[in-house]
Prior knowledge:
- By secondary structure, the chain is an alpha/beta fold.
- It folds into two domains: 6-41 and 276-369, Aspartate Aminotransferase, domain 1 (Alpha-Beta Complex), CATH 3.90.1150.10; 45-273, Type I PLP-dependent aspartate aminotransferase-like (Major domain) (Aspartate Aminotransferase, domain 2, 3-Layer(aba) Sandwich), CATH 3.40.640.10.
- The protein is 40% helix and 15% strand.
- It contains 13 helices and twelve strands.
- The chain has helices spanning 14-25, 43-54, 67-81, 95-107, 123-130, 149-155, 178-191, 212-215, 243-254, 262-268, 277-294, 319-328, 354-369; strands at 30-31, 90-93, 113-118, 134-139, 160-166, 194-198, 219-224, 237-240, 308-312, 331-332, 334-335, 345-349.
- The strands form three sheets. Strands 2-8-7-6-5-3-4 form a seven-stranded mixed beta sheet, sandwiched between helices. It has a three-stranded antiparallel beta sheet with strand order 9-12-11, with helices on one face.
- Helix 7 links the parallel strand 5 (160-166) and strand 6.
- Bound molecules: 4'-deoxy-4'-aminopyridoxal-5'-phosphate.
- Residues 35, 95-97, 121, 166, 170, 198, 200, 224, 226, 232, 237 line the site of 4'-deoxy-4'-aminopyridoxal-5'-phosphate.
Amino acid sequence: MNRLASRTSRIDSSGIRRVFDLARSLKDPINLSIGQPDFDVPQEVKTAAHEAIDSGHNIYTPTQGLAALRENLIAGEKQFTGREWKENEMLVTSGVSGGLFLTLLALVEEGDEVIIPDPYFVMYKHLVRLFGGTPVYLDTYDTDFGIDPDRLASLITPKTKALLLNFPNNPTGRVIPRTALEDIAAVCRKHGLLVISDEIYRQFAYDGMTSMAEVYEDTLLLAGHSKSYGMTGWRLGYACGPADVISAMTMVQQYSFVCAPSVTQYAALACPQVDLSKNISDYRAKRDLMTGILGSHFRLAPPDGAFYLWAEAPEGESGTSFVEKAIANNLLVIPGAVFSERDTHFRICYTVPDDTLRKGAELLCKLAAS
Ligand code: PMP
């Protein structure tokens, strides 16, 4: 008898694990694979964390999150999107990953389908599968990584539970403009489909963005602090959405995560005082530096935001074979097949010092020309 539940065999971590193993085996590589910011947690937030520990805020918080933080986040959402979430429409989670886990656990059962635009953040398909669902991929390669509403409509079946959107996108960097969101909303409204909108990179939309929550009432918004405040290890995020879904997620959180980390929640009370503009403009400049060098050698997805570039491998090469060549030259990027059903692209993360970026970009161009 197999002692592991069969659900564990529906998922695997081989693709991404191979990349991380390779990263460990390289000596001092030019590493453009990281996927997290290179700035530290702002001092105000660190100070608030120290104060929280010293003043004994080391115990469980309410499952939904600290009241003061929830108020603060609801106010932040009102400012960002104009949408005013009610108290029972919001839950503080352990990162957006925690939010995704709870959302999909609450929604997906055996045989359900979740539409996932391809390319996608790796976690999505695995979580859908873990809970017995089937990921249904919406190809975006021929639409400049935007979403074709007719194609979306054609994928909806009676088993479809949700559309899982992510923008600014990991891995493509693409932001979906407001008019396109309205078209997506019209299709979803017609079919009564919930949209899960992962907006974890929303601060890094270099020309601004509209939230899905602004244009579509039946949105479950996931956002968080990991990327904006350089606190990926602190595990904080939140979900805003329909009260019935939030209530089910809260119940599951009660019996699993219990609450998001207490110290981090207190520390996050200081986040609204932080001025993020320098970090964002630094990353915009890094984006420009990279597109400036790579643009003449590679076809890039529109680099609207997040901190990634999605580049097509040169003619005649797969994403994997080109990345193998890069790795042989001590440069680490991630093959597109990790994020996609296709193997034609690779992902570059530009949250590293400018001289490393220059070296990496020049080497990529050399490899493309060779
Ligand atoms: N969504 C996307 C699109 C991401 O790229 C990431 C992190 N790489 C997450 C969610 C998870 O973030 P968190 O640290 O908040 O769990």
